[in-house]
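Support case: user asked for a sample of complex input and structure output to validate their parser. Sending the pair below.
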Amino acid sequence: MPELPEVETVRRGLAQWVVGRTIRTVDVHHQRAVRRHLAGAADFTAGLIGRRVVDTRRRGKYLWLPLDSGDAVLAHLGMSGQLLMLDATAPAGPHLRVSFRFDDDGPQLRFVDQRTFGGLSRSIGGAVLPPEIAHIAPDVLEDACDDDVFHAKLRRRHTGLKRALLDQSLISGVGNIYADEGLWRAKLHYARATETMRRPDTTRLLDGVRSVMASALDQGGTSFDSLYVNVNGESGYFDRSLAVYGRRDEPCPRCGTPIHRESFMNRSSYLCPHCQPRPRNPHW
DNA sequence: CCTGCCGCCTGCGCGC
DNA sequence: TGCGCGCAGGCGGCAG
């Protein structure tokens, strides 16, 4: 499940493999992969051929490849999307959605996505910041992410803390896994009413999210010696760095209390019932 | 305007 | 063995 560290790992891989190369052909193998390109697959492709990739950028879980035309290839990996660099002779595989060939006949860029929640589009004039993601707030690792601004927005909300953390228009890059991990590090409960957050609470929360993401990034960013642009959440840090996510009944690394799994927002939330006590006035 | 819920997808693992 | 179901979950759209 790609969240910010995984997407950033992919972006770094792409920076090595595609910047400076010119697109020769683009094949859309599955229409759903370009559904966000409203003008259709043919239009998506037409504006890419002959264009040179000049950079790689990311905000939150979105990444984009600015082109020399001023447009950009905008990508979201969804639940299961991968951007892979593969030799032309590599087999297509059942989940191949879009493939890019370059005019140097070098490794191809392939968008592979089992569950098809992800997708690509061509963002018109989106090289600097695609207008399609104007509603996405700066992510937790950006300089543009102002902690005071986030705190003020949080206090104006009337909802639970985890819901707010997952709202990409408030702060971006955080998904279910890093939300749970960040809340655990900050010793905060997911149902804490956002309007009751004090500045030190917000500081702890942001510290928690940033630190867990930083260590994930450290451990995810080690495998660029092959053509494979790592997006697979199962590899590397996934098992080692997580304190609570997916660890029901295992001891809390801090206090030993068995981790709880609770259903919240129709998904799993993992927490330590001792370190993260339920607030007196929870906001579900 | 704000909040919260639904639908979109596929593969895996479990219980009967 | 096989079938059905729950689960994984990000996000756009929309209802209230």
